[in-house]
Amino acid sequence: MPDASSPAPLVEVRGVNKYFGEHHVLKDIDMEVARGEVVIVIGPSGSGKSTLCRAINRLETINSGDIIIDGQRLPDEGKALARLRSEVGMVFQAFNLFAHKTVLENVTLAPIQVKKIPKAKAVERAMELLTRVGVEAHANKLPSQLSGGQQQRVAIARTLAMDPKLMLLDEPTSALDPEMINEVLDVMIALAQSGMTMIVVTHEMGFARKAADRVVFMADGAIVEEAPPETFFTDPSSDRAKDFLSKILH
Ligand SMILES: Nc1ncnc2c1ncn2[C@@H]1O[C@H](COP(=O)(O)OP(=O)(O)O)[C@@H](O)[C@H]1O
Ligand SMILES: [Mg+2]
Q1: Is the pTM value of this prediction over 0.90?
Q2: Are 59 and 228 in contact (CB under 8 A)?
Q3: What is the mean pLDDT of the chain?
Q4: Side by side, which strands form the sheet with 64-69?
Q5: Which controlled-vocabulary keywords does the entry list (predicted)?
Q6: Helix, strand, or coil here: 155?
């Protein structure tokens, strides 16, 4: 739940516009995420959800507006950007693990190379995180020896190893076989309950209902509606949301 005692939101997106050529893909996006808040971003394919996540992490530049994380405006480039970016953990649909490195190496690589954490300490912390996501028994295997659900849990552990202030998860379960979705959602629910600030692009209503504070519905590059999950899923106010929900619910 949001921490009401903290003054500023952790994430402030103000009047953000983004074009790909002539195509206006983010239209005056305003969004705030409080510390400890879990926000679900939902909407039709092509509505700009991934672009918004990527913009928040500066994997994508913006044409106008401001993105402020923990009181700091995201710089365009350089060391300051690298530092701010390391404070935002991102988990993608494709797990993006290094195929030729073991699970343990995948989780310790950035802490050792980027954060200069001594190897023994990085390994100890990695094993804690792998235990937390339930894949510690596979630490010395290569990603290809794990199931998709296990690989995505490793990807989450790898992100957590950098101690991010914010986690962005972009459709983290949509590439998984159905029987593996819940094991990843359970890890995400536990993470949400631990107080992590999260922005999650997902259509998983079970996760939304259990773990989300707020649903942000996007269509055609704009935020159309925001509501608590129960309200959004049972009584959406916009026609766009009603139409979208009727499609994903049937
Ligand atoms: N690198 C890119 N170059 C050009 N157009 C892009 C690029 N990435 C995304 N788009 C377009 O921007 C729009 C929003 O895409 P995206 O953010 O991926 O939507 P979503 O994640 O909601 O499916 C889509 O029309 C998509 O085709
Ligand atoms: Mg997307």
Answers
A1: yes
A2: no
A3: 93
A4: 23-33, 11-20, 64-69, 72-73
A5: Amino-acid transport, ATP-binding, Cell membrane, Membrane, Nucleotide-binding, Transport
A6: helix
Residue 104 within a domain: yes
pLDDT tens digit sequence for 208-249: 989 999 999 999 999 999 999 999 999 999 999 999 999 887
DSSP state of 148: H
Q: How many domains does the chain have?
A: 1
CB of 2 shorter than 6 A to ligand 1: no
> Is residue 1 pLDDT above 90, yes or no?
no
- Pick the residue whose CA is nearest to atom 16 on ligand 1: 48
Residue position matching structure tokens 């295997």: 141
Identify the domain containing residue 133 by its residue range. 97-163
Look at residue 101 and tell me if it is in a domain: yes
Helix (H) or strand (E) segment spanning residue 21: none
Ligand 1 within 6 A of CB of 53: no
**CA neighbor of 104 nearest in space, from 84, 128, 126:** 126
First-to-final CA distance of the chain: 31
State the ligand closest to the CA atom of 42.
1
Q: Whose Cα sits closest to atom 20 in ligand 1?
A: 46
Centroid of ligand 2 to alpha carbon of 112 (angstroms)? 31
Residue with tokens 């998860």: 169
Q: Which residues contact 45 (CB under 8 A, 6 or more apart)?
A: none
DSSP 3-state assignment of 44?
A: coil
